[in-house]
Design goal:
It holds the Pfam family MaoC_dehydratas. The protein has a single domain, classed as Thiol Ester Dehydrase, Chain A, CATH 3.10.129.10. The protein is 22% helix and 32% strand. The protein has helices at 25-35, 45-50, 60-72, and strands spanning 18-19, 80-87, 98-109, 112-122, 128-138. The two termini are 14 Å apart.
Length: 139
Amino acid sequence: MQSTRFDDVKIGDKLPALALPAINRTTLALYAGASGDHNPIHIDIDFARKARMPDVFAHGMLSAAYLGRLLTGWVPQSQVRNVSIRFTGITHLGNQPTCTGVVTEKYEESGEKRIKVALKCTNQYGEEKLLGEAVVALH
């Protein structure tokens, strides 16, 4: 991974987008096993329908993990100082998540050069599923 330098980053710069394959039942089962989150709304169609949903849907934290992957594909995890995320929509089966980030601020704090990045996860129709913000330290 090439090091991202504070002096080379400008407000408005975009992180390389992370486009992911469509969410399917296998993705949900694998995530449930890996995370230990076996909430039936995400893996049991009968349970989901009893909850008045048309089918199972992705764990919110799966999409949050994708946003984390976007960040750590850009800078090492050790440089991430804070991440805050708000869930804004349901990621249904067949949705293709795309995670993006835009630099919104540059500043110094605690002796470090830091930037803020606005984060977003949308589906193939441009519908927002998560919004967030991250702070990363750069050299």
